[in-house]
Amino acid sequence: xxxxxxxxxxxxxxxxxxxxxxxxxxxxxxxxxxxxxxxxxxxxxxxxxxxxxxxxxxxxxxxxxxxxxxxxxxxxxxxxxxxxxxxxxxxxxxxxxxxxxxxxxxxxxxxxxxxxxxxxxxxxxxxxxx
Length: 130
Fold this sequence. Notes:
- The protein is mainly beta.
- The chain is built from 1 helix and 11 strands.
- It has one helix at residues 101-109, and strands spanning 3-7, 10-12, 18-25, 32-39, 46-52, 58-60, 68-73, 78-83, 92-100, 119-120, 124-128.
């Protein structure tokens, strides 16, 4: 059974940076997509970014493009989300998620219901405020 554990959240000032980590265990990630979602208070959970484990293709939501970078350390089975130039509107609980590539990318892009995602982490809080 695949398990996901996020870490790296915290509080920063606008313009600051954080790096989120998603440590995986229990199963291989071959043919999977790994992504990050976030849910701000009072809002629906939205897709932020995702990456294909095998070929490294990535996707970023327009709201984070150019500021966030997703990457994989295959030796550690860990997925990272480097977040730079953080804004108050980035404040949210960030969740790591894994599923087959097509399912995961579809959900992050918003075309597929997130209920089809098989594996979720517990979430990590990111707060951006002055």
